[in-house]
Specification:
Strand content: over 45%
Number of strands: 7
Helix content: 10-25%
Distance between the termini: 11 Å
Radius of gyration: 15 Å
Number of helices: 3
Order of helices and strands: EHHEEEEEEH
Shape: globular
Strand order of the largest sheet: 1-7-6-5-4-3-2
Largest sheet: 7 strands, antiparallel
């Protein structure tokens, strides 16, 4: 299963990036997410400040999906700061891959998400 969504946003790209990477405030910014538990944070930069890359970030997200609470643990597998990041989750016999990105196309700003779920087990094929 693959899903691609791209939305035009009336905000500067740095603002959009800041919101889609602010895991400490997902509950405030994304409908349906009820809790985020940060399990691992990216290592600090060599100067001791927060790294612009999200590599190393791992969290458990609690959300309401189809009227039921669901918990998924995800981690960042790839990140190009201010462009995109990719995440992976494994649950219920399937692997879930997501890509969140921001882009400018002829002066119009967009946020997008690509999602792919791949069953690994027979059970996963029915989920």
């Amino acid at each position: 299963m693959k899903i691609n969504i791209r939305l035009q946003v009336q905000a500067p790209l740095p603002t959009i990036w800041s919101i889609i990477t602010d895991y400490d405030h997902f509950v405030d910014n994304i409908t349906g997410i009820t809790d985020v538990i940060i399990l691992e944070r990216p290592p600090l930069s060599s100067d001791g400040t927060e790294s612009p890359s999200l590599l190393g970030l791992k969290w458990t997200e609690v959300r309401i999906m189809f009227g039921t609470e669901a918990k998924e643990t995800m981690w960042v597998t790839e990140c190009v700061p201010h462009k995109y990041y990719c995440t992976k989750a494994e649950s219920n016999g399937a692997v879930y891959l997501s890509k969140m990105y921001v882009e400018d196309e002829e002066g119009v700003n967009y946020v997008g998400m690509e999602f792919e779920g791949e069953p690994l087990t027979m059970c996963g094929k029915f989920m």
